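This week, work through this protein record:
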Amino acid sequence: MAKAIGHGVASAANTASTTAAVPADSLPEATWRKSSYSGAMGNCVEVARLASGDVAVRNSRDPHGPALVYTRAEIAAFLAGAKDGEFDDLAV
């Protein structure tokens, strides 16, 4: 479950776990990157590791829009499922 980050402070100790998005601009320490598999049409998501160890995710078409912040454990669980093909039906 994504965590809301208040006032750009990325700290698991002071945030409650919610599904709320935060403005990507409120994460100044984020260095965003996207997959080399991303298309030229901007149809991709970008990820950034935060100083807290959490991982932020945003839509590359809206770099100033919302970002969701996940714990490392949440990202690890998602990536394990993606590697095992659990979400392949979503790309068809």
About this structure: The first strand starts at residue 22 and ends at 23.
